[in-house]
Amino acid sequence: MSAVVGLASSGLLSPWWSLFVDDAGQFLAALAATLACWITAFRHSGTQRWWRLWMGAATGGWMIGQFFWSWYQLFRDVALPSPSLADAAYLTMPVFALVAIIALAADRPAHGAHRRRPGQLVTVLDGLVVVGALFVLSWATTLGSVVRAGAATPLAYSVAIAYPVTDLVLTVIVVLLIAATASAANRVLLIILGAGLLCLSFSDSLFAYLVSAGAPGIPPLANAGFIAGYALIAVAALTPTREAPRWTVHPGTRWGHLLLPYVPVAGTGVLLVVQLVRGVPMDNVEIIVEVVVIALLIIRQAVTLGQSAGLVASRARLVLATDLTRRQLERDLHDGVQQRLISLGLDIRLAEASVPPELPELRQQLSAVMAGLNGTVEEVRELSRGVHPAILTEGGLRPALRALARRSAIGVELDIRLDGRQPEPIEVAAYYVVAEALTNAAKYAESTLVQVCVEVRGGYLHLTVSDDGIGGADPKRGTGLIGLTDRVEAMGGTLTLESPPGQGTHLQADFPLGHV
After folding, report:
1. What letters, b where the CB count within 10 A reaches 16 and e where it falls short, cover 375-406?
2. Which end of the chain has the least Cβ crowding within 10 Å, N or C?
3. 7 burial class (0-12, 13-18, 19+ CB within 10 angstroms)?
4. What order of strands is seen across the sheet that includes strand 449-457?
5. Transmembrane region positions (predicted)?
6. Phi and psi angles of residue 452, each rounded to the nearest 5 degrees, phi first
7. DSSP states along 300-337
8. Which long-range contacts does 375-384 make (Cβ < 8 Å, 24+ apart)?
9. Cα–Cα distance for residue pair 327/322, rounded to 1 Å
């Protein structure tokens, strides 16, 4: 690239040969990218093949446009009309490239992978929002005046706008995909493609400016972006593909990605306010694009709200399914293992009663076995109670909390103001909140007394658990309180924790009774 640009700009060649070297360098760069994409495509399968085929079609279309452009410049020695066949071929590049990028973004691990189509839709909407906002900014500052001055016809006007807009669309979508992709498998490819498209966008912006002004060509140095861009696309096609890990966890909230589309929109709003203050009217292009950007933002918010509602419902279904499984396991333990052990105990008692008096040692051995069996039955009973307390299913929250208080290692004061049963998922969630709070108070809080209050008021079940321990509880230091928070929020409720050091811990959970 540097050799082509340096030779074409050196002044050592005649103007015709300098132009020939410049155009040939661009043509060969696009040809190299096309061949790299198509040749490597047949070494891969699935989406890794398809994105290369589509990208090869994109670079091949641009190469044809470059041929027409060079023909007019070098052999006909006339300025290329706008629009022309070269424009038609050039503009196939962003169309096919967009399909290639979408195919690459949709690539997922082959084994048991899940394609998150709503997430991809939000990414595309973010890209369109950013593109629209950046277009308004560039149009209001420089691009609008340049295009209006140089475009003689509406068609020429549209073609002049198409170059920077399409490049901007591709570049922004690649940047968003790099930021939002859940897998690192294609991140290197996207980074290389993004760098190449950014180079193309830079030179295309200069191209749009000079063509709309009626210039026959652009300086070789400004064409460096075309050569570098297609060279980078060739490198991306030749880059080995690494399979993504099957399971990837990204903790925390990615605020940069969430806020990215709103930054240019805010900049657009500031610019429009400045224009209004200065008395500069908005033209039709600005108005249309702003309306489209606002509509896209509304659609994005609707999709995001739908995703959030789906996640909340999914979490609630997961909690309910877990509780159902625990209840089934408790029944299996109670009705299967526990009953079988009790039946064995009765058989041992019968055998012990039938032992002759002259065999006291055998009687003692059977008695010891019976004692051990009774202990096993009690352990199974405790295990089944911990999995899912049968008393909660049969009697409701009041007797279940009383049973918890009786088994607690520290004193518990209960204040239960309930009339009848509550929705079963709410009762289960409230029970486990109290159970976890009592366990934490006994293990870590060094408390001697826990006060539990449950009441229904204003369509909510209000639950408070307070102890007189050392305080200082921090949900970030353990999974117990985090799990409680997830369980409460899955029921549409809220969990509040106050635990100042030395002043005990106060836990409050509020459940909406109409949510379930």
Report:
1. eebeebeeebbebbbbbbeeebbbebbebbbe
2. C
3. middle
4. 411-417, 449-457, 460-467, 506-512, 494-498
5. 24-41, 53-72, 88-106, 118-140, 160-181, 188-211, 217-238, 259-281
6. -120, 125
7. HHHHHHHHHHHHHHHHHHHHHHHHHHHHHHHHHIIIII
8. 376/341, 377/338, 377/341, 377/342, 377/345, 380/333, 380/337, 380/338, 380/341, 381/334, 381/338, 383/333, 384/329, 384/330, 384/333, 384/334, 384/338
9. 9
Cα separation of 467 and 504, whole Å?
5
Do 331 and 392 form a contact (C-beta atoms < 8 A)? no
Is 82 in a helix, a strand, or coil?
coil
- With contact defined as beta carbons under 8 Å apart, do 22 and 4 qualify? yes
Tell me which residue of 159, 271, 257, 272 sits closest to 208, measured CA to CA: 159
**pLDDT tens sequence for the chain (516 residues):** 555 555 555 556 677 777 788 888 889 999 999 999 999 999 888 888 898 999 999 999 999 988 888 887 777 766 556 667 887 888 888 889 888 887 776 655 444 444 445 556 776 777 778 777 877 776 776 566 666 655 556 666 666 667 667 766 776 666 666 665 545 556 777 788 878 887 887 777 776 666 555 555 566 776 788 888 899 999 999 988 654 444 344 444 555 556 667 777 888 888 888 878 888 777 787 788 888 888 888 888 888 787 777 666 666 666 666 666 666 665 666 566 667 777 777 878 788 788 888 788 887 888 888 887 777 776 666 565 555 577 777 888 898 899 888 888 899 999 999 888 888 888 888 988 898 888 888 888 888 899 999 999 888 999 999 999 888 877 666 546 777 787 788 888 888 888 888 888 999 999 998 755
Cβ neighbours, 10 Å, residue 292:
15
| Per-residue tokens: 407 | 């088994």
What class does CATH assign to 395-512? Answer: alpha beta
Contacts 24+ apart (CB under 8 A), 341-348: 341/373, 341/376, 341/377, 341/380, 342/377, 344/373, 345/370, 345/373, 345/374, 345/377, 348/373
Distance CA 248, CA 459 (A): 40
How far, in Å, are 104, 173, 230, 236, 468 from residue 233 at the CA level?
A: 13, 16, 5, 5, 66
Using CA atoms, how far residue 395 sits from 362, 399, 512, in Å, is 43, 6, 21
Give the span between the Cα atoms of 4 and 24, in whole angstroms.
Answer: 9
214 vs 76, 190, 365, CA distance in Å?
17, 35, 108
Q: Are residues 485 and 429 in contact, defined by beta-carbon separation less than 8 angstroms? A: no
Q: Which residues contact 270 (CB under 8 A, 6 or more apart)?
A: none
Instruction: Give the integer Cα–Cα distance in Å for 319 and 488.
Output: 10
Selection from 494, 422, 492 nearest residue 464 by Cα: 494
| Rounded-to-integer distance, Cα 425 and Cα 296, Å | 38
Structure tokens at 99: 């399909």
Could you tell me the sign of the dihedral formed by the alpha carbons of 275, 278, 281, 283, in that order?
negative
Q: Which residues pair with 462 in a beta bridge?
A: 455, 510
89: tokens are: 């071929």
pTM score? 0.52
